[in-house]
Amino acid sequence: MDNHMNHSLSDATAICDKISLDIFSEIQPHGVMLILDKYDLSISYYSANIDDLLHTSPRELLSHSLAHFLKIPEDDIFARIEQNQKKYKSAQWHTQNKIIKIWTYTHQIDDYFVVEIELNQGNESNDEMFELIQKFSDMSFLSRSDDVEALSHHICKEIQNLTDYDRVIIYRFEKKNNGIVLGEAIKNKMESFLGLRFPASDVPNYVRQMYLQQALRYIPTIQYNSVNLIPVKPLIQKKIDLSYSLLRSVAPVHLQYIHNMGGAAALSVAIVYNEKLWGLISCQHKIPKYLSPLHRIVLTIFSSTLARRLAALEYNQTLIKRGKIIPQKNIIADYIIKHNSIEESFKDSSADLLKMLSAQGVALLWQNNLMKIGKTPDDDQINHLINWLYTTYRGKTFATHSLFKFFPESNEYKKMVCGILAVPITPEDKNYFLIFREEFIQTLIWAGNPCKVLTGDSANYSPRHSFEKWVETLRDQALPWDTMEIKAAEYIRSVIANRQLQHLLQEQATHDTLTTLLNRRSLLSSLAVELVRAERNASSLSIILLDIDHFKVFNDKYGHPAGDEILIGFAKFLKTHIRTYDYAYRFGGEEFLLILPNLSQVDALKKAELIRQEVNNLKVFYQKKALPRIYVSLGVANYPTHRKDGKTLIALADEALYQAKLLGRNQVVVA
């Protein structure tokens, strides 16, 4: 959608939304309206057509109470009105010369009771209406299809059979309040709108709000002259809000709109569930058309039943999608839990990730390591994107189907990546989980060009005249992310974060926090395992116990922070001098211990001597200044030379270390 269309649609919607229902103080002429004082039921207003429809002059009307004309006891009239709020009720209107069958519909506005009266033309038998109400209240006549469009088409056919309107459509509101025609039944050469979209301005906000309060809107003819409400005491009467009255007159722009669609009469019923307007049943007829209140009641009941059916279908679709996402989500979680590293689990679960989230690419930035699968931007572009996410949405999930609108720099790769779901794994740093969707080119078919010519005010606003198909192509956007997909990605984030927390707790339990070497907690168990292996394989195992010489003196002279740098530097040095299957421990203070599987006493002595010599070359800096070189004393013990258990081997190595110190330090002694 280009900018011109965006502005045109938003301007049209804004102009329509300026109209307010409470400006209409006139009614349609097919009914009579009486407005009664809530406290004494005296008539405060009456419609000017009282004589035309009910053959009662204003003078006669005001000379008697309402009970007189309805032939109801005065004591019962208040209860009748109170108990039948927003319900049609059959009654008889008694004049001097005749009895007129009528329908009454009452509701309260502020301090008034509004009585809306229509003639009861009595064309339906009780049996016929009973059958219709039964049929349309349980929907048993409809197919059990789970396809909303097929269901909508069937509904339109049945409603057309009931009402005989020339056009019946099921109209559904989309997220931006545009609408789409899902089902249709037409005859008498009415133009088809099936599958077409209508802009939000066609059903403006004030009308959508009205439908939530009053589900039905009935216009038997668009060619009518509005009827005024006449106040009994003009000087003291205030304006009555007729927003939710059935007989309320309709905005001229809406009547013109019906005419432009090829109709001369219209009826619409709201489809509401979860207190939201899902859509409309909309009917038009080429000539004026009367529809009895009984038929309108049937349609209102049916719309409520239909809403429940649609809600069930929608929930069923949610269950189907959930049934696909949950197994994949659990598979991915298992990958993460079972693997030793996040990187390995990401690699192994990437195919399931892409499938679960209907994505084309995924990236993980974890502890400065960037991993990518599928279609993604390059490394620099992803890092730039993550910097922006971290700055703008730190700690928050960010999802959009049109990244370019938020992050213009993505223009470089928008043909490959238009949608992004970005989930921060940890809020305090730049560890991010990114899911990418490619461009999805969408063709929308509108009922006429929705870019209306505007004159700038609601009084002069005119709807479009043509509803001929108008094609629009949407680019630079992906399929939107739904709530279930976002929650699934956030669940994966939580699994990664929990796995990292477990790993961190495990690290803290088994590793020294300063040097990151193993601590003494797992020493004896690891040594016992290696001794069993050495005995089984008839191989050797050596232990080297190391101590940094004169470390206390160093700490006293240079301070503990400098001493910590020495310990950290020495730990890194040890890691570079052992094999991948060797063990390095911080034994305590400035003491360190190495377990060296499959290493003889002679080779262990050589290894210890090499460490003693090369540590002299270790350079450690503190506050950008080089610290003095360090020296170490070392004690060596070996299996099977010393056929002892783990504790005894450590004790022998400790004794050898003690001897090295007594002999002047900076040397190796074998137990």
Q: SS-based structural class?
A: alpha+beta
The shape is elongated
Mean pLDDT: 87
Rg calculated over all Cα atoms = 41 Å
Helix segment tally: 19
Largest beta-sheet characterization: 7 strands, antiparallel
Annotation, overall tally of beta strands: 27
Strand content range: 15-25%
> First CA to last CA: what distance?
83 Å
Please state how the strands of the largest beta sheet are arranged side by side: 1-11-3-2-6-5-4
Helix content: 25-40%
Uncertain ranges: 1-15, 453-459
Describe the oligomeric state of these chains in a short phrase.
Answer: single chain
Short summary:
The chain is α+β, with helices and mostly antiparallel strands and 671 residues long.
Task: Give a structural overview.
With 671 residues, the chain is an alpha+beta fold. Helix content is 39%, strand content 24%. The protein has a 7-stranded antiparallel β-sheet with strand order 1-11-3-2-6-5-4. A 6-stranded antiparallel β-sheet has the order 9-8-7-13-12-10. A 5-stranded antiparallel β-sheet has the order 15-14-18-17-16, sandwiched between helices. A hairpin with a 2-residue loop joins strand 24 and strand 25 (625-626). Helix 16 packs across helix 17 (560-575). The radius of gyration is 41 Å and the shape is elongated. The protein starts with a helix and ends with a strand. Residues 1-15 and 453-459 have low confidence and may be disordered.
